Structures are given as structure tokens and as C-alpha cells.
Amino acid sequence: MQTPAAFEYERATSVEGAIASLREHGSGARIIAGGHSLLPMMKLRLANPEHLIDINDLAELSYIREEGGEIRIGALTRHKDLLSSELLAEHLPVFRDAENVIADPVVRNRGTIGGSLCQADAAEDLSAVCTAVKAKTVIRGADGERVVGMEDFHVGPFMTAVGDGELLTEVRIPLRQGGSSAHEKVERRAGDWAIAAASAAVWIDGGTIVQAGIALSAVGLTTIHLSRAEELLRGKGPSEDLFEQAGQIASEDCSPTADGRGPVDYKRHLAGVLTTRALRRATARALHQEV
Amino acid sequence: MNVSITVNGEQVSREIEPRQLLIHFIRETPGLTGTHWGCDTSNCGACVVQMDGEPVKSCTILAAMCEGHEIRTVESLEVDGQLDPIQMGFHETHALQCGFCTPGMLMTARALLDENPNPTEQEIRTAISGGICRCTGYKNIVAAVQWAAEHEATAKQGV
Predict the structure, then answer these.
(1) A-chain residues within 8 Å CB-CB of B67?
(2) pTM for the whole thing?
(3) What residues make up the domain containing B151?
(4) Would the pLDDT of B18 be above 70?
(5) In this predicted structure, what is the pLDDT of residue A191?
(6) Taking CB atoms and an 8 Å limit, are B130 and A106 in contact across chains?
(7) How far apart are CA A211 and CA A216, in angstroms?
(8) What would the pLDDT profile of A240-271 be if each residue is shown by its tens digit?
(9) Which chain A residues are within 8 Å of B122, Cβ to Cβ?
(10) What are phi and psi of B70, to 5 degrees?
(11) What domains does chain A contain, in order, with CATH numbers?
(12) A-chain residue closest to B67, CA distance
């Protein structure tokens, strides 16, 4: 039987209360939302929180809305709601692409975007999605909020910028004209972790890519932000040749390890192919030419 | 800590450790061993029950998190000797061999039909993709869900 080590359980009734409790219990405290990453880690003793704060009652952290030129997503928003959101599908289709292949529908009923990002597992899809669309995270503590870009959110494997006494409350994604996005993933079987996955976003103005975002899952110790490939794309007209060059950079700039999901060469190849495909699809969508 | 959960319409209260998982809370309740405890890692889906009408994996939820929520297990499907149409579908199409995955498949399929009474084959396959049938009897499980959907549609027309 797999059972977590003993801990104290508390159900938060407000965001402020959760933050106060996090502060009180220091590094021994952990937030639990869907629990579908944390509880398996606790069963294996890879995580040993002494005090669990359940935030599932904080309905004020579950929303997807457009506000101030951004899409704002509450940290407690569940995968199933990200999948079914028409607002996201319209502006940021990368979310629906990813959500269709994250775990399985039953797990998606519980897992949340905040939990996924805070888990900071390199094989997790939403971290790549949020990196590609240049999302910002809102982290709240007793002294107020700070906004941290995705490039600074993950500070190492399973480590984030969220400190003791702080709670991730929101993900903000800026909306700009001419943009679209896509996610491509290859997995061994339904619901498995990715062998590799690529998220891409492009913003096109007058036939030129004015901005691009690309990130990879499962081919490094953390989510891989492909800034060199983004640099290549900026200022150029979209073309198949360009996307293949970006894919080549993806193959070079990832750092996969060999495991049961495949050897290093295969994963590098896959990272490249998926990057090219994601860019192709994001661009077709931005130009309203998706087949 | 004392936890009180509505299981199949009845209030079940017990003194438990906070670390007790929902699957064990359910199975330690007299008469409720129908929910199967399988992989313990949220992969296999044998432990699926409904929480407020949604299928969830009870090996990966703390019982304490379910206080105040409605849990429905496989035992709730049959009422007064009358099988639920999804159970009848499994019977009619021979959708179980060893039967280990069956409680999870039934509760997942029941939730699907409650939300989408006329699913396509692909929608059924997607819905049950969180469950593993180690006898690999998926074809008949899909047929059972289709049987239940058709049966329920006919029954509704009859009313």
C-alpha cells in the first residue's frame, strides 16, 4: 500500500488565510489543489510536507477571463476547464492542443494549472505552453503581489520562484494582434508523459514574424525555452525552410537523457520535428490558413 | 481528525488520519468494497468513483478533501435489484473478463452518459482512456457504453 507520511491537514477558507498559514508553517507547508502530482510524490516520499493546506474551496481562484488586454487564468482552474474554454480556444489554441493530451479525462477533472506550474516537472506540458505564450505568473504573499515572467518562474527541476509563505494565484497571458499558437506532443500511450513536446506561438504583422515563443517539454532538467530559435524567427517571413531551421536549433539546444521512452538521438530528433510542426500549425492559424 | 462524507446518499463519519486516501475510506466502510484498489498511482482507473457527479481517481484524493462532497460508488448503480443500464450493457456485450477494471469503467461511463447521452465511439474511447483493462477488452467495453446509450434513448422515448 502506498500511503503518504503523516501530516497535518487544513482546509483554507480564504486566499489570505492560506498565505497566513503558509507563513506560519514555513518550509514544512505545502498547498494541495488537485493533488495529482503532489500525492504521488508524497506516497513515494519524494515530497514530505508536514502541513497540507487544501485550497480546493477557494472558488475565487478558478476563472478564465479577458481583462486589460490579457487572458487571466486563476491558479485553481482545472485542466477540464482549460480544455473546454472557448475564450482560450479562440485566442490561445495551444491550451486546447495541450489539454487534449495531458494525462486522461479523469485526472483532468482534478488537476489545476497552478499545480502543474508549481510542480515544475520538466515533462509537464503547461509549463512549455505558458513559456511559449510569454505568460506571467502572479505570486501573492503577506506583503502583496509580485509578477514573475515564465522565464524566471522555474528556477530548477521541481523548483519555482514561489517562496515560503507565498501562493501562485494567477497566470496572465498578454494578447497581441496577429498571434496564434500550437502544441505538439508524442507519447508512448494515452495519458503517459511526453517523450518530447513542443509549444510554439507566433505573432505575425504584414507577413513578418514580429515575435515568437517556443518551449520544449521532457527533453531537459527543466522546461527548455528556445530563445535562440525565437531570435532566428523574429523579423523574418514565415516559411517551411525557416521552421526547419528552428527545428534544427531545437534539436541542438535541448538536453534529453536516455530512458525507457527512448535514446538521446531519438529525443533530439523528435524535439526538432515537433518544433517545426508546432511552428507550422501556429503560423497557419495566425494566418487563418489552418487545414 | 473526524471526516464526514456523503457516500451513496448516506453520511459516513469516521475518525481518520489526515493521510487516509479516499479509496481506503470507502473500502473500510462496511459493504463498500466494490471500488477496486489497483495501481495506487492514478494510472489504472480501477478506483474511479464520482465526486459531485464527476469521475475521479480515489487513490489520489485524500478522504479529508472530500468532506462536504457527494461520493458515488459502483454500489449505487443497482437500485432495488434493478441494474443501471450501463451495468446491463456490460452484461449484454460481455464487457468484462476478470472484472478488476469494471467498477472504474462503470463509474466513468455512467458520468459520460450523464453528461453526453449520445457519445460517438471516439468520445467513449477518450472518456475511458484513464482506465486500463488488462484483459484488453476495450472493444466490448465501448460496445457496452453504446448499448447503454441506445437503451436509455429508447427508454426515454417510451416515456
Answers:
(1) 11
(2) 0.96
(3) 85-158
(4) yes
(5) 82
(6) yes
(7) 17
(8) 999 999 999 999 999 999 999 999 999 999 99
(9) none
(10) -100, 120
(11) 8-54 (3.30.43.10), 59-174 (3.30.465.10), 179-286 (3.30.390.50)
(12) A11
Task: Number of helices (H) and strands (E) in chain B: give both, helices first.
Answer: 5, 5
Interface touch B62/A103, C-beta < 8 Å:
no
Shared-domain flag, residues B51 and B90:
no
Q: Are A76 and A61 in contact (CB under 8 A)?
A: yes
Q: How confident is the model at residue A291 (pLDDT cuts 50, 70, 90)?
A: confident
Sheet containing strand A70-74, strands side by side: A64-67, A70-74, A167-174, A136-141, A144-149
- For residues A229 and B4, give the distance between their C-alpha atoms in angstroms, rounded to a whole number: 54
Residues contacting residue B121 through CB under 8 Å, at least 6 positions apart: B142, B146
> Coil, strand or helix: which one is B15?
strand
Hey, are the CB atoms on B1 and A5 less than 8 Å from each other? Answer: no
Q: Determine the pLDDT at residue A125.
A: 97
Q: What is the pLDDT of residues B74-100, one digit of tens each?
A: 999 999 999 999 999 999 999 999 999
CATH number for B26: 3.10.20.30
> Cβ separation of A110 and B61 shorter than 8 Å?
yes
Whole-complex ipTM: 0.95
B-chain residue closest to A108, CA distance: B56
